[in-house]
Amino acid sequence: MRAHIQSLPGSKIREVANAALGRNDVLAFWFGEGDEVTPAFITEAAVQSLRSGETFYTHNLGLPELRTAIALEMTRRHRTAVASDPINADRIAVTSGGVNALMLAAQALIDPGARVVAVTPVWPNLTAQPWIMGAQLHCVSLTPTAGAWELDMDQLLDAITGQTQVLIVNAPNNPTGWTLSVDEQRILLEHCRRTGTWIVADEVYESLYYESTVNGCAPSFLDQATPDDRLVVVQSFSKSFLMTGYRLGWLVLPTAMSASMGNLIEFNTSCASVFTQRAGLAALARADEVTPRVVAHLKLCRDTLVDALLPIDGIELARPRGGMYAFFHLPGHPDSLQTAKRLVAEAGLGLAPGEAFSPQAQGWLRWCFSSQDPARLLDGVERLRGWLARSL
Amino acid sequence: MRAHIQSLPGSKIREVANAALGRNDVLAFWFGEGDEVTPAFITEAAVQSLRSGETFYTHNLGLPELRTAIALEMTRRHRTAVASDPINADRIAVTSGGVNALMLAAQALIDPGARVVAVTPVWPNLTAQPWIMGAQLHCVSLTPTAGAWELDMDQLLDAITGQTQVLIVNAPNNPTGWTLSVDEQRILLEHCRRTGTWIVADEVYESLYYESTVNGCAPSFLDQATPDDRLVVVQSFSKSFLMTGYRLGWLVLPTAMSASMGNLIEFNTSCASVFTQRAGLAALARADEVTPRVVAHLKLCRDTLVDALLPIDGIELARPRGGMYAFFHLPGHPDSLQTAKRLVAEAGLGLAPGEAFSPQAQGWLRWCFSSQDPARLLDGVERLRGWLARSL
Known about the structure:
392 residues, alpha/beta, four-stranded antiparallel β-sheet
C-alpha cells in the first residue's frame, strides 16, 4: 500500500465517537448531521422511482431534468448584476454527495506535486483529498480573535502565487462559522485570475446562513464569477434538505470542464442512483417547505447554545453567521482530543476536537447544534458546566 | 484543469450510443447491463429502510451486518484447501459500486509515477483510473486465436518486475470473456509475491460463469491467497443481482488495509446509503432466488447469440466461458468505431466498438447478450446479417 495513504490520519472525530461505543447515555454533537429524518415527500419520491423500476445506470453527469432544476435553483440564488448570465444546466454535474464532488474536483485539478493552498481550520476531508492526489499542500490559517476566526487577506494573497494550481476554501466554514465577505471574494477572484489559480469553493453551508440577505444565502463566488472563471463550486443536498444519508451533491463548473467531469464520474461512481436523483428533484421542487424551516430552527438552536455557553467563565466563542457549529476555546484544557475523550467518559457529552480541523485549533471544541429538541443542547451545556466544575 | 485529465478520451461506447439519440428503433446491446429490473424483494428492502427513516450517515466501511453477510458469502465461494481461512468481515469494505471499489483500490495502491501493468483488452475504466492517479501504465495484450483471446503468460511475467507496483486484471474478462485458470492464478500470485506487486483483481463476473464448478464461480485469486497477500478483489451487486442502478459493490482486502480504506471511503463518498445497503443485505439473504436464475438465462442468451453468429461467413468468435459479452471479429470492417456507428445508422443495431477496450481489439465488436427476451438477440443478428449483405 502507498506509504502516503497509510500516513493519512484516521478521523479524530471518530476516535472520540469510538470512545463512546457501547454507551447509550452520551449526548452526541460530534458529527455534522442533525437528528431529523428526511421529509416524507422526498423519501416517497425515491420510493416511487424504485417501485417504477428505475434501477438501471443513467447519465454520468446526472438526469437532465435534475441538472436543469439545479441550474434554475443556482441561477435564482446567484444571478446578480455582476454575474448576469444564468447558470446553465450544462455547467452542472450531479455527484454522489458533497464529498464526492470535492474529490472529483481534486482529481480534475490537482497534478502530482502541484502546489495547493487551503484555508484552515477546515473539515479534514478538504486537506486529505489533495494529499491523496499527491499535492504539495500549503495551509493558511485563520486567526482566532475574541472567539471568532478571521482571515488575514494579505497572508492568503501572498500564499497564492503563479505556481499555485488550486485554492481550496470552505465558507461558511466548518468548523469555525467564518464566512467570506463579498469584498473578500472579489479580491480572491481577481487575484486568482491573475495567478491562473483554480478556486474550489465548498459552499455546502451557503443556505444555512443567519444574516439577512436578498437570496437567503451567504456570499458565494458565483455571485461575481463569469461562466469561464477557473471556479468550481461544491454543493450538497445533505444539510439544507436533511438528506445526509442519500449521498447526493453537485458541482457548478465552467462549461468547458463538463465533458471531462463526465468522464471522471464514469471512472469514480458511474452515476448517482436514479431513485436518489428523483429524491433530489422532489426536494428542489418543494424547497420552500424544507430549507426555510430548517434554517429558522437552526438559528434557534444556535442562539440557544451560544447564549448558554457564553456565560461560562473564560470560554471564547463567537456567534457563527452561518453553518451549524459552535466552535469554542475552553481555557485550561489545551489538548482538545484528550478533552473530548474525557467529556465523553466523565460527562456523557460528545463534541469534536478542534485539532481535527487544524493544529491551530488545538484547545478548541466543535459543537454541532443541529438538534430537533433544543433542550438537548441545554442538557449538554449543563454536562459541560458540571464537568468543568469537577475538573478544576 | 489538468492536461492529463483533458486528454482522457471520452467513452467510445457512449459515442456510438449518442449516434442513436432521438431514435427508438435501435436494438441496443452496447452497455454492460441487462434489461430486467431489480427483483421486487430487493427493492422493497430499500423502500422499508427509507420509510423507517434510515436517512443518515453510516460507517465508512459499511453496515456491520452487511460486511458480515458479504464475508460469509465470500467464504462460501472461496474457502478452499489452499485458502483455508474464512474471509472475515474486517476484510470487507462496502463501496458505491464496483467502479468505485476499483477507484479506491487505485488511490490506495498507485503512487504518482508508479509502474502499473494491466491486461487488455479491458473495460476502459480499469486503465483510466491509474492514469488519473498519475501512473506509468504498461498494457499487456491478450492474443486473439480463432476468436478467443489468450494470455501469453511469459510475456505477462516479463512485464511484472520488482518495479511494478500494481497488476490490474479483470477475469472473467469484459469484453473478451477470457478467464484465468487456477494454474495461471497460482503462477501470477507466486510471481507477484516475489516482485512485491499488488494484484487488483476485478472479479465482478465471477458468478456469471457457465462451466461446471464446485462453487458456481470462475476461478478466483481468493481461492489460493492468504489473508496477508497483496491482493485486492473487487466485487459488485450489479450483475449477479440485477442491481446496476443501486451503485453497490465491495472490496476484499488484506486485514491490515481496512483502516486506511475506511479513511479513503470517508474522503471519497463517506459511505454507501444505508437503504442501498439494506437492499444488498436482502439480495444476499435470498441469493439463491436470483443469481442461479440469472445465470441460467444468461447461458441461454449466450448460446442463442453465439449459435446465430457463428454461421456468419468469416466471423471470428469463441463461446465465452464467463461474463455477459460476445466479442467477435468482423472480416472486412477494420474500423470498429466506424462500423459500430454505421450499424446504428444503417441497421438499427447497437454494439460496442472493440477499440474502446484496447488498440489490439480494433476491428472487433462487443455484444452484451443480457436480454430478457432472447428473440431480441436473434432480431439483432438478422439486422447484422442484412447489413453485411448490403455492405458487401
